[in-house]
Amino acid sequence: MKIQLYCLFVVLSFSTNSFGQRLNRIEKKIVKQVEKLDIESIDFLKKVVNINSGTLNLVGVKEVGKVFSKSFKAIGFDTRWIEMPSQMNRAGHLFASIEGTKGKKLLLIGHLDTVFEKNSPFQKFEIQNDSIALGPGANDMKGGDVVVLYALKALYNLDLLKDASITIAFTGDEESTGKPLSISRKDLIDEAKQAEIALGFENSTGFNSATIARRGASGWKVTVEGNRAHSSGIFTENTGAGAIFEISRILNSFYDEVRGENYLTFNPGSLLGGTFVEFDSTKSSGSIFGKSNVVAQKAIVNGGLRFISEDQKENARKKMRHIVSQSLPKTRSTISFMDSYPAMGPTEGNKVILSMLNDVSLSLGQGSVEAYDPGKRGAADISFVANYVDGLDGLGTMGSKAHTPKETVNLKTMNALIQRTAVFIYRLISID
Question: Which of 118, 356, 393, 413: disulfide with 382, CB 3.0–4.6 Å?
């Protein structure tokens, strides 16, 4: 359910744990409890990072889920593993929850999988110094998962989770989402419809920023058929322009006529053209045969589209369809679109929640928290719930070079981020 803004503005003047005020006695205890858990949280991060959980390593993803499940059970959460159909080749998801009637109903979102599969040479957590550790998925996003766990553990240790309503959703396929989405994201969306605030713990974009908007992602494919003929006849009435000239026209027109809107980008990622073309979509690779003295009879281009709203997406698609329909002589072109991630728009509700987080950060003496530019972020699981509940993302750990063999997590700031999360959750579940 989307939060009613007037309810949030009431929160801002909440008397017991007022947003924008200094830490109260209980919140100071929360901070001290989190500080005590610093070494333990780093050790836990090392443990889960050292379990390979590349998206296609189903056993590994489930194993990481078991480790988190045991820890959530230990702090009073009921857990369940949601299996995916075998034909989807995805491990499933870990959900954990406590059901109460106090405060806001929270949905906390993370993911268990990484981009590093079993054959990756990058497999182990390694501390470089007192601030930095290397590790596959240490920042994206097992670090964020640890932030969730240890913020809740601190609250549990102080007996502050009584009668709270919190659901944790750690998906097992965020890095390569299982299809169809109607199955792989059904449980996440169902929980969002019951929640009042969603918090995503994808890796942070900076200690003093949070994400109130993320662009959606969509795929597109253009296929062109032309007349195969001797190159001496190109441009004639019988032969026409050929498939490669037609695909060039389309891409150039996309560049000239679709480009320019704020937050809208589109990228042709692969292009094949020639006499014979074969493309394997499962491997995203292909082969061609062609000669300079033969007019190309086929061309295929695969690309991606990023957008900040459904209206922007549909407007771009309309322009692209029109361009494709204007074929050069003796060519026939079609375009298809494949939905992936919806957009998370910068709603007023998201902005109010950001203001609440900002007040927590100021109370902790950690400085203000501002909205991060959505044009610099990719899609994430929180996008699937954005139509149903307001929220924030990018609340996980800091680090660098995610998705590369040099991925790092910043250990110095992790405890401070756990403190911020714990106090924030405490205030949200304390609202009358």
Answer: 393
